Amino acid sequence: MLYATRTPQAKRRALRELLASGRTVQFPGAFNPLSARLIEEKGFDGVYISGAVLANDLGLPDIGLTTLTEVATRAGQIARMTDLPALVDADTGFGEPMNMARTVQELENAGLAGCHIEDQVNPKRCGHLDGKAVVDAETATRRIQAAAQARRDPDFLIMARTDIRAAEGLEAAQERAQALVAAGADALFPEAMKTLEEFAAIREAVDVPILANMTEFGQSELFTLEELSSVGVNMVIYPVTLLRSALGAAERVLDTIKADGTQQAAVPDMLTRARLYELVDYPAYNRFDTGVFNFQVPGTPR
Ligand SMILES: C[C@](O)(C(=O)O)[C@H](CC(=O)O)C(=O)O
Ligand SMILES: [Mg+2]
After folding, report:
1. DSSP three-state, residue 161
2. Per the domain annotation, does 42 fall within a domain?
3. Which of 69, 81, 162, 281 is deepest in the core (most CB within 10 A)?
4. Where are the coiled-coil regions (predicted)?
């Protein structure tokens, strides 16, 4: 109950071990704190916290409008619900080097295992849309240096994301990847790779763990775990998948209520009351309560 049993330090250590395991690990995106429990229960390796989801959930487009406070608060609420390590999307780091340092410390305080910081100009765009622009190599590497210097837990993962592929091509992406790793990035997120061969080319260029973003309706095909594993990808994220699925289900049930005058036809698709209670670990709170109040009011069931 109440919830994670592992400390943020232990989760960060676990993330490092996952990335060193030689396996390709899967991090689905939690769209709220409780969905992180579901991800853990289903046996995934970790939880991703998407900037797009946090923005869209607030009704905002993913163009750098959310603040550090909003992101750190929500990411902390999600991270605390799970014993899995959580990786959060820190967009462009919420400013330039000094801000980067503060961002990393706030995310450490919030219990995250790591974050990724991208090399887009401010205001940023979704990585799978046209019209993105990136900062020069010096600005990009200073962001990563500042982030790496600011962390207090050496296991807090600083992942550099580069969006340069869409603007300047694959060779530029390889070069940028190397510069970001030289600046201190522990891992790399090459955004909007089009093919498996492109992932392989990034794999060739750097010797840190690399991430594949399997977001729907984007630039990359939805490669399987096996395919990504075969080109040396270490971590796969499904950033917006659960939000898209949940909102898709919500839209359908609203249509059903409108059409039928009742939600009855949609009930079989819903999480039952019992399952929802199981997910929030209701029985554990009951046990705790009966342990403290070890008497029963006549006539009330425990
Ligand atoms: C990974 C990402 O940065 C995110 O915020 O989840 C997005 C995902 C998306 O918009 O589909 C991105 O790829 O830019
Ligand atoms: Mg994002």
Report:
1. strand
2. yes
3. 162
4. none
For residue 125, give the ligand nearest its CA: 1
255: containing domain = 247-291
Same domain, 110 and 210: yes
Q: Do 134 and 191 share a structural domain?
A: yes
- Measuring from each residue's beta carbon to the nearest atom of ligand 1, which residues come in under 6 Å? 50-52, 62, 89, 126-128, 213, 215, 218, 239-240
Widest Cα–Cα separation across the chain: 75
Same domain, 155 and 261: no
The question of whether 151 is a catalytic residue gets the answer no
Peptide bond into 123 cis (omega under 30): yes
- Pull the structure tokens for residue 68: 């550090």
Distances (CA, A) of 2 to 5, 30, 76, 88, 91: 9, 18, 14, 21, 29
Are 22 and 159 contained in the same domain?
yes
Q: How many domains does the chain have?
A: 2
Residue 48: active-site member: yes
> ipTM score of the complex?
0.99
Residue 299: inside a domain, yes or no?
Answer: no
Residue 145: both structure tokens together: 């240096």
Q: Which of 240, 255, 280 is the last residue of a domain?
A: 240
Confidence of residue 302 (pLDDT cuts 50, 70, 90): very low
